[in-house]
Amino acid sequence: MSDTPAQSNDIDGVTPSQTEAIPPQPRRSTARRLGCGLALLFWFTALLTPCALFYLASHGEIRLNHRDIPQSHAHPLLLVSLVSEAEDRGLRIETSWKANSLSDETMLCVQTSVRFLLWEYSGGNQNVRYCDCYARQDADAIWEYVKTYGDAC
Length: 153
What we know:
The termini are far apart. The chain folds into two domains: about 25-60; about 60-150, no CATH class. It is flat and about 80 Å long. It contains three helices and six strands, in the order αααββββββ. The chain is an alpha+beta fold.
C-alpha cells in the first residue's frame, strides 16, 4: 500500500499540486537594474544637495585636494567657492589635473581650469585655463616651480 497513484505521477520528487503552486521567477534585465541604480543615485544626489549648499554657505568653499601634486593647495582637485564681490556674485569652480609627466619623473605639468557660474556679473569672459610646470633632479628631490603657461599645457 505504500505505492499510491499520486506517487507514480511524481516528477523529480515533486507532486503536480506542488508544481502548480510555485510561480516562475521573473527575469530581471541588466538595463532595468542599471536604470534603477541611476535613478537611486540621482535621488540621493537631489537629497544631499541642500546639505552641500548649507556647507558652502557656512564655510565659503568645498575643496578636494590632490595627494601627489606639488603645491596641492594651489591646484585643488575640485574647489567650489562663493563669489561675493560688489559687481560679481555666483560660484567659482576650479579643477586641476596632471597634464603630462615624463616617464623619468623629473618634470610635471598641472593643468588648472577656473570657471565661473555667475548670476550677477560685470561682463566679459572670466573663465581661465593655465598650466604650471614643475621640475626636480631625481625621484627623491622636491618639486621646484619652473614656469606658468597661459593656456593648455
